[in-house]
User: Fold this.
Amino acid sequence: MSRRTTSVLAALAAVPLFVALAGCATSSDAGSGSEDETVKIGVVGKGDAQWAPFVEAAAEEGITVELVDFGSYEQPNPALTEGEIDLNQFQHIVYLAEYNNASGSDLTPIGSTAIYPLGLYSTKYDDVDDIKKGDTVAVPDDASNQARALNVLQQAGLLELKSGGTPYSDLADIDTDKSKVTVTALEGALIPTSLPDVAAAIINNDFVQDAGLTFDDAIAQDDPEDPNALPYVNIFAARAEDADNETYRKLVEIFQTNEDVQAGLRESSGDTAVPLQTPVDDLVASLEKVQKDAEEK
Assistant:
């Protein structure tokens, strides 16, 4: 998910699927891997710079891509489940796990795109190592961003989580005796104005530029190589029955390797996206773990 989607797990108002989807034929025959196929991909932000070169590159491989643009994040997964589209690309693993658990669906990742790191910012310190023991650090108070923020702080060596860190960690998961800092939770939109009052703060990507900061100002952020960051990797999702579809896997390869697509991805993310080619088995294992964690939370 891009900067727009850092808080997608918050409740969203239900919006009906576009009328244009009604009665649309699916492209399930794409499983044959034959050329000159049409594949419908659900996205949120059709105008993002990566999509035009992606469609062009797919066409050069004999695959016609039809982008179906959705107006809100809760729409593409139901559309995929119902067969109105063939793939979607807009979400990270945590969001997909929440959807599968809530709907009983079996959507699955078939490839990674990028991770959009969540950053720690400070007006008092230029280096995370300079933060003093007992200093206060602010994190967002909404559940999805708070869990991720706590994992970032753990990766930065500022605290330790009793669970080791999960997508559902909260303040109660902090081992205070083994942590360097005190953590306070604030409404995400208010954190930028509160930054001078704390040693540092995790600021949702949506609010970084509004706070007069740049993403380069972060003194710490997700480490894409850390296992706790894996659930926040953005993915192409398909129905389980299509997990091995050769055409769909080819589209993932095009997205991951085409230079123009990758340049567009960086452009549309404000150069914050970290492109990834995470093994599909790792993505699936992460999804299964997150779904299990969600059921037990």
The chain has a mean pLDDT of 88. The two ends are 23 Å apart (CA to CA). The first strand starts at residue 37 and ends at 43. DSSP finds nine helices and twelve strands in the chain.
